[in-house]
Amino acid sequence: MNSNLxxxxxxxxxxxxxxxxxxxxxxxxxxxxxxxRFKGNGLSTVFELLEFKTVxxxxxxxxxxxxxxxxxxxxxxxxxxxxxxIGDFHGNLVNGALKGWAVDKKTVDYIASHGxxxxxxxxxxxxxxxxxxxxxxxxxxxxxxxxxxxxTISDFRQKHLxxxxxxxxxxxxxxxxxxxxxxxxxxxxxxxxxxxFTYLPADGDGQKVVCSDIGPGNTLIDAACKKYFDKDxxxxxxxxxxxxxxxxxxxxxxxxxxxxxxxxxxxxxxxFNLEYVERAQQLSETKGVAxxxxxxxxxxxxxxxxxNTLYAYNAGAKVFVSGGGxxxxxxxxxxxxxxxxxxxxxxxxxxxxxxxxxxxxxxxLGNEAICGEPIRIGKxxxxxxxxxxxxx
Length: 392
Hints:
2 domains; about 400 residues; globular; single chain; alpha/beta
């Protein structure tokens, strides 16, 4: 038997596995690296987060990615180069993290890499019925595997698409496995560039689980902050708190068919971008809104679309929040104001650090790819995800 396959077979038979989860989202802020230990699989999974860090992207790398990110027309050469470059780059970042944690790479069973999303195109967005749902993440996993010498599992979203899903949100599988609790309705809310949620019923019935994108998370706030204040994000909502919500603009922002579509659904910056904001400003005749008021309004917009979606599940359900938006005080205060009777806490209360959650979930998907079995959850396909890249 091929030695790589022998090693994979041994990893699948282990009582516990050491895996590294990698996540870089649509916010383009950096790479999350989580070192995790897993015992078992599926609903019997026992998980431990051993180490975690975020490595910020440089301004130059952010600039390069933005040239091909969420654009219909891109420089194909740039796309091709960045696919390989980011794979090498992520591999080197993993090497640095493991060295800093004094972890021998020979003890690591696998790396699970989400890659860098550059375009998400479900049918509801591209509007071409003859073509399927689609998504694209770059950061070639063969490069990660060769740079690190560790088996790398990647491209998780493609199997979800191939099996009939929309490729997102994949948090569903990890949320169901790690956070379900008998006798307690829970909602796991992630506010990244795009916001999404997973509803976990108290009876544990997988067919009642709902997981869906909601709408914008930080993406519009960050884009406006960059345009008007030359900052990557509104730290501590310092700008938003100085502004006032423009309710005419807020109403126009909320007036889009996406918010009326049935769940589950997916979206991305391909829809929710500054052009979306400009159209709403035209409709509401608010093109002269002050930048600080725009920031307050966009922050309120994110909180409002989340509250409107979660309202249907708030009868006793506890909400646990993760992602960069969990550290946005304006969003969190406004969300609590809109849902006054709902207990809202960070996922840290579940033993899952909010900043590390998505990297942990991809490490879990890697564990499932090695030793799990397909699980039917809600309307999502029952399938194992991930492609295997061997180091030699």
